[in-house]
Design goal:
By secondary structure, the protein is mostly beta strands. It has a domain of about 80 residues. Helices cover about 0% and strands about 35% of the residues. It has a three-stranded parallel beta sheet, with no helix packed on it. A three-stranded parallel beta sheet has the order 5-11-14, with no helix packed on it. A two-stranded antiparallel sheet has the order 1-2.
């Protein structure tokens, strides 16, 4: 449960520690990953959510769910459970980089309900 949230810094204080592994870098990974910012966030909201991509060089944004085997041998599994979410202006033109993309993802089940993906210039959802 969230104890506090600082809008200026984005720091969330929890009442209990998280139960599962969550990865998210506090700064952009753009310089170390050939211009790709690979930060991630995990959040639980109790209201409708709208994910809006920027229109930069025909690239709006992407929700990527993937399983990953780290160099240490630890297996990480991605999972997406969304309900009442609007995904607008995401994906990339003339590629298979859809607004919501499942890549090498086999270990957990997924759920997309009561949601809409629209306004994209490429695929909406791909697996």
């Amino acid at each position: 449960m969230i104890d506090s949230y600082d809008q200026a810094t984005g720091i969330v204080t929890l009442t209990n520690p998280v139960s599962f592994y969550h990865w998210g870098n506090s700064v952009s990974t753009e310089d170390t990953h050939s211009g790709v910012d690979m930060r991630g966030e995990v959040i639980l909201l109790t209201r409708n959510v709208r994910v809006v991509g920027n229109d930069t060089d025909s690239w709006g944004g992407q929700i990527l769910v993937t399983d990953n085997l780290e160099v240490s041998g630890v297996q990480r599994s991605g999972q997406l459970l969304i309900d009442n979410v609007e995904v607008f202006n995401c994906s990339q033109r003339n590629t298979f980089k859809s607004a919501i993309r499942f890549e090498n993802q086999n270990l957990k089940w997924q759920s997309i309900t009561n949601s809409v993906v629209h306004g994209s210039i490429g695929w909406g959802i791909s697996a």
